Amino acid sequence: MLKPPSNPIPILTYHQIAPPAPKGAPYRSLCVAPADFARHMGMLALLGYQGLSMSALMPYLRGERQGKVVGITFDDGYLNNLEHALPVLARHGFSSTCYAVSQLLGQSNVWDHHKGIAAAPLMTAAQLRQWVAAGQEVGAHTRHHVHLNALDEATCRQEIALCKTELELACGAPVNHFCYPYGEFAQPHVALVQEAQFHTATTTHRGRSTGGDSLWALPRVPVLRSTTRPVLWAKVATAYEDRRRD
Ligand SMILES: [Zn+2]
After folding, report:
1. Do residues 122 and 77 touch, judged by C-beta distance below 8 A?
2. 15: CA distance to ligand 1 center in Å?
3. For residue range 27-52, what is the model confidence (pLDDT) as tens digits?
């Protein structure tokens, strides 16, 4: 029998690691400046935390190993993760999981354009292979960054299962972890993610992961442009985020 982790495990959610968009730009909070990202990782390392990809985090989530660990995830597959996050992760010996959108490789965050969010390039297949070759992991975020709640089951199955196959071909590595776009999911989507043989799925529910969480509906800890080091520490090491659970 698995025993649940005795310490809550934070799984951090980052999006873009890039200089912030001009003041007033929509959703600029989702861009963490490269220098701030370096400070975040530096602080975690100094505190003795190991930053881990979802695969590396699995034994901890399953209660098989104990330790000071933090999951690091990036949503959407931005090229600026490769440019600005990878050197920092490598410096600390950290791994992470970047959730990519398989039909939009080398394109941009087209799903955001109607909200007035500036286009930002997404990694190509070759760049995803660079990411993997450097010790990082690729996860799946559907084929087209869809609203799963708005689609019929057959389309959801394609978006979830084919995304895995397409990304495995693109990056030449197993893709075993899924992230629900927009944090939208319901029980049928959980079943489809399990059917597609994903080992975990992350959500936008806030909180650190505890033994009570399904591996296919894991809460995460958002990290924003405005997240200072003291706040990041509180999110990781205290019940600060857990109180925000829904
Ligand atoms: Zn996304």
Report:
1. yes
2. 8
3. 888 899 999 999 999 999 999 999 99
